[in-house]
Design goal:
mainly alpha, globular, Na+/H+ antiporter like fold, 3 strands, 493 residues
């Protein structure tokens, strides 16, 4: 019959992402846990412990250190976090492959990534604008809410690899989506800064540098024969951090212009992309070094969290603050559920749900957005809610990855009598959306002292059976607010 036709993949020359080189069998078997799972469970436990330890340490430092000492502490943690993130992203670039004959698929991936990042941002911004007491400036709400958009590429890649999912379609797709996701968020900050601070020509320099890096990664993809051992990778990381920080220092101190600050994420990824790597030269020692760096990164991400005790929310009661944090945390997750509707021709619903949950962890990029918001003079309850929501998301990161690992496994055939089927993931997701809508209505109805309109979930007719209220101050015609919550999850298949 001959060989089957080659099907091009959107991740390069990968005909089956669940296969790997036979020479790696020994290392793959060694990485399996005692339960026969796909990855060492101790890695996940250590990563989780480091995240929690770092989170606690960040709050202890904020309470115990003086203002000057805390500023120095933040600077040191920030530089070390950038160094570890750069190391991780260079390695991601080493393994990134691009099928230049199928560029259209990447346009689709970029659109999906931007939409999956945009929904949480829009949802949280709307909550800040309409649910918080007192007026919130439109630009401030947009900037502060952008912490909900980016996926933490460092946390995602490290934990998915620790879970043994590196060779799966889910990991390959999450890899490119997370990169586009973070890139889109960085680019999004440019127009947001224009909205808040006005146009400044330095913002065009930021965009030009990013475009130059992307073009370099595309044109010189794996063409430069450079050493790629862990020692040289760390050297590249040090140089990248030095370049980014040096540019910021020079433009801030010595040039009559606003400072230009470039995130290390894109330069580090570009460095990995242009390097030609000999994957057969990798050893167990190299893997151990990567694990140590990833472990340190988890600790540093926790340590880089801003203080939860930010002034500006004293007028919010504990119950109100908890309600806002819960709503924002749910909206951050629900926005990523957009991925359930994508890639129906490439994977089943179970895998798409795993992909959506895998994109939920936020971390260093979200914390960086909050710091940018503080530097732009944004303060008050929106920052407090953002910081606490980000901390909770950090706590849930391991749970997201455990769920992804479970969903990535093919369902096992049952030997016993058939059990009653549980609710489909789509039904669960839509139920959570409905509950969030009810919370939103309850908060807004209380704020407007009952002067509100009724809203319902489709196809329920308006009336006393409605699940909540929509305040009149949202504007527009006084009609029932139709929340798009289809009750037929079959549309996702």
């Amino acid at each position: 019959m001959g060989n089957p036709p080659h099907i091009p993949s959107s991740f390069g020359d990968i005909s089956n992402t669940n296969t790997y080189n036979k020479n790696d069998n020994h290392s793959r078997d060694r990485m399996k846990g005692p339960d026969g799972g796909d990855g060492p469970p101790w890695k996940m436990m250590v990563f989780t412990l480091m995240l929690m330890t770092g989170l606690v340490g960040s709050q202890v430092a904020a309470l115990k250190l003086s203002r000057h000492e805390y500023h120095s502490w933040v600077e040191v943690v920030e530089k070390l976090t950038m160094l570890c993130l750069s190391f991780i992203m260079v390695n991601v670039g080493y393994e990134f492959n691009l099928d230049k004959s199928n560029i259209k698929s990447y346009a689709k991936d970029y659109l999906v990534a931007m939409t999956a990042a945009g929904f949480p941002w829009i949802f949280v911004a709307a909550w800040f604008l309409y649910a918080l007491p007192g007026p919130v400036p439109f630009g401030s709400a947009l900037v502060a809410a952008s912490f909900a958009a980016p996926t933490s590429a460092g946390i995602l890649f490290s934990m998915l690899e620790a879970a043994g999912l590196k060779e799966t379609w889910l990991f390959k797709k999450a890899q490119i989506l997370a990169i586009f996701d973070d890139l889109g968020t960085i680019l999004l900050m440019i127009p947001l800064k224009i909205v808040v601070e006005g146009f400044k020509w330095e913002l065009t320099a930021d965009a030009a540098i990013m475009l130059l890096l992307l073009c370099s990664a595309y044109v010189k993809l794996h063409e430069l024969k450079l050493p790629s051992s862990s020692a040289f990778t760390m050297l590249y990381s040090v140089l990248i951090v030095g370049f980014c920080e040096g540019m910021y220092f020079v433009t801030d101190r010595y040039l009559p212009m606003d400072a230009i600050r470039i995130s290390v994420l894109l330069p580090a990824f570009t460095m990995g992309c242009i390097t030609q790597v000999d994957h057969h030269a990798e050893s167990d020692t190299e893997e151990r070094i990567k694990t140590v760096i990833s472990t340190c990164f988890m600790l540093l991400v926790g340590l880089s969290m801003p203080s939860l005790f930010i002034a500006g929310s004293d007028h919010l009661s504990f119950q109100a603050l908890a309600g806002h944090v819960l709503a924002v945390s749910l909206l951050m997750i629900l926005g990523k559920m957009f991925l359930l509707f994508c890639y129906k021709d490439e994977s089943d619903l179970r895998t798409r749900l795993g992909l959506a949950l895998g994109m939920c962890p936020r971390g260093e990029v979200g914390a960086g957005v909050i710091v940018i918001s503080l530097n732009m003079g944004i303060s008050g309850p929106i920052i407090t809610i953002a910081v606490i929501s980000l901390a909770i998301n950090l706590v849930l990161s391991s749970g997201f990855i455990v769920a992804v690992k479970h969903l990535a496994r093919p369902p096992q055939a049952s030997k016993g009598p058939p059990r009653k089927r549980s609710a489909k993931p789509a039904t669960v997701a839509f139920t959570i959306m409905a509950i969030t809508a009810c919370i939103f209505g309850a908060v807004q109805g209380r704020r407007s002292n009952g002067a509100a309109q009724v809203f319902t979930t489709w196809p329920m007719p308006p009336g006393r059976q409605a699940c909540g209220t929509l305040p009149a101050q949202l504007g527009g015609p006084r009609q029932a607010f139709m929340v798009a919550l289809p009750v037929y999850p079959q549309i996702l298949h």
